[in-house]
Amino acid sequence: MDIQDKRILVTGGSGFLGSHVVSRLRAIGCRRIIAPRSAEYDLTREPDVLRLMQVERPEVVLHLAAKVGGIGANRKYPGTFLYQNLIMGTHLIEASRQYGVEKFVMVGTICSYPKFTPVPFKESDLWNGYPEETNAPYGLAKKMLLAQLQAYKQEFGFNGVNVMLVNLYGPNDNFDLESSHVIPALIRKCVEARERGDKVLPVWGTGKPTREFIYAEDAAEALVRAAEVLDTPDPVNVGSGVEIAIGDLVKLVAEKTGFTGELRFDPNMPDGQPRRCLDVTRAKELFGFEARTSLAQGLEKTINWYLASRRAAAAA
Questions:
Q1: pLDDT over threshold 90, residue 25
Q2: Using 50, 70 and 90 to split pLDDT, how confident is the model at 271?
Q3: Residues annotated catalytic, as ranges
Q4: Which of the residue ranges 50-59, 107-116, 170-179 would you say has the lowest mean pLDDT?
Q5: Which residue from 47, 154, 218, 288 puts its CA 20 to 30 A from 282's CA?
Q6: What is the distance between the alpha carbons of residues 204 and 269, in angstroms, rounded to a whole number?
Q7: How far apart are CA 221 and CA 189, in angstroms?
Q8: Is the peptide bond before 233 cis (omega within 30 degrees of 0)?
Q9: Over the Cα atoms of the chain, what is R_g?
Q10: Are 42 and 28 in contact (CB under 8 A)?
């Protein structure tokens, strides 16, 4: 699909991932981009979703709006995360079908995978068990939206695709310690600990679990490419394909932020899923995507952006 002349709706377009996707769309020549704020349209309310479709008449939808957070937020708000993510996606997919949307790109999550999935995660293992408990409600909500896209393809011929993203990081990320994911939380904690002159930095968990990360600009490129080329409702993993232990990640962030104190892991706090690393073969085969930004490069860019944003906020 040539999307340059299409009316493209990006839900969550002013958010972390959305801002990168909108920038990527503009970079390839798209000019008819709709990125409404939640104050204009509450996507958890069906009347608002239908009004959005009636007013804007999008031809392509990239559904990025989500209620997300790290382990702490997932444990604190499991019902909120399940309801809001499920209801937003369900309303949008149905309204898109009703209003003749030509392509619907759904952002899935690797939180949908079973807790004990063979590594690297293959899409064929997605339904072989229950997700890790701390983020199961969020992961299950996204999993049901995948099932909805597959069912709509079968019954209505609806053209929806599902891209399963690993953990994102990069400029514009959420650095709120109550709701942020691991990389922005670590960056903020290390920077503030260095500035205070702390000798010890407490870190949740044992440091033994592994995770995979993708730089936000790379993820945006993958989603736009999927809108152009991908043509199946079945899940497709998108990540870097590189696994790192949380303990090694903490050391890397500490080094790049200049924190030289002790990193003290707390085994009484939850670790989350034991390992996460994707088989990204299908993304390369189906729409030619490979991540380009290494973790070291991405961390440097993200840290520099965070420090610059703090300086700008202090000067304001």
A1: yes
A2: confident
A3: 138
A4: 170-179
A5: 154
A6: 5
A7: 29
A8: no
A9: 19
A10: no
What pLDDT sits at residue 274?
86
User: Letter for the amino acid at 303?
Assistant: I
Q: Which residues 6+ apart lie within 8 Å of 267 measured at CB? A: 205, 206
Q: Amino acid identity of 187? A: I
Cβ partners under 8 Å of residue 210, min gap 6: 243, 244, 245, 246, 274, 275, 276, 277
CB atoms under 10 Å from CB of 144, counted, come to: 16
pLDDT in tens, 197-239: 999 999 989 999 999 999 999 999 999 999 999 999 999 999 9
178's CB contacts (< 8 A; 6+ apart) are 69, 72, 73
Q: Pull the structure tokens for residue 146.
A: 């995948």
**One-letter identity of residue 276:** R
In whole angstroms, what is the distance from residue 300 CA to residue 290 CA? 20
Tell me how long the chain is.
316
Task: Identify residue 245 by its one-letter amino acid code.
Answer: A
Q: Is residue 172 within 8 Å of residue 13, measured between CB atoms?
A: no
